[in-house]
Every structure is written in C-alpha cells, then in structure tokens.
Fold:
Amino acid sequence: MAGKDPGTAGAGNQFSTPVPRRRVVEALLGSGFLATAVAFFYPVLRYLVPPQESDLGGDSVVAGRVGELKPNSGKIFRFGQHPGLLIRTASGEYRAMSATCTHLSCTVQYRDDLHEVWCACHNGMYDLNGRNVSGPPPRPLESFEVQVRGEEIYVRRRREA
Ligand code: FES
Structure:
C-alpha cells in the first residue's frame, strides 16, 4: 500500500479517474438521507392528497355478492362518496337506496325487527321503498335499481324518464 493515496479508490490504470472515498461515502449518506425523507414525507403527502375516487362512473357499483345477505337483513355499501343501503327483504327481494338520512344526513340502517329503515339520530323511519313514514325526515331516500349479474349484486342510480 506504500505510495498509494489513501483518499482515493479504484486508482488503477491511466484511463480510469480516481474516485475519492470521501465522495463515495457522502453519496451513500446523501442517498440514505433522501430515502429517509421520502419514506417520511410520502405517507404525509398521500394523506393530504387522497387518490381519486373510483366508483365505476358514479352510476353503478357492486354492492354485494349473492348469498352474502340472508333474508330480512341489510348492509351498508359504498356508492361513490356516500353510503348506500342494500336490503334483502324477508321474501328474498333486493332493495337498495341511499343510506343518507334526508333530515340531517345521518346514516340509516335496516331494522330487521321492524322491517323498516331507521335513522338512529332522531328516530326517523322509512319503508322498504325509501319513503319517509315517520319522524323528522322531510323526503324519501333516493332509491336505486338492483341487478343481480352472476354472483354480484349491482346497484345503480335510476335514470330519469
Ligand atoms: S338525521 Fe335522520 S332523523 Fe334526523
């Protein structure tokens, strides 16, 4: 090792450029710092800028699968930015409607004991077609069309005639 510059690496023949070890170490430390900064800020950025909502064109979603709901039960599903309510009636029919109460926008739920849709916030009631039947809700819930295609239950907004 006598005669070699300790601050260089790869000092070889006359065609190669010696790379100082200090630069290599600085580059490694710099890339490590950059990776740490990206690992820290990326989740923060993803939180502040949420991804675009995917809701199959805003008109139709898969609300559930056949066999998922037993008769006389319901489930909340996501319809774009809002909740929807899928109900399987006691006779096995599917119904779907918005799950946003028309009073003050609480999320409604299916009550299997009453066979109605209930809003817990102020005891509002809707029938299985979404019509407001008692309590403070001023309007019916928006009702949706239901189609069973294969194993999937699709819900879509009703088209105006
Ligand atoms: S928000 Fe539903 S009854 Fe008031």
Summary: The helical segments are 21-48.
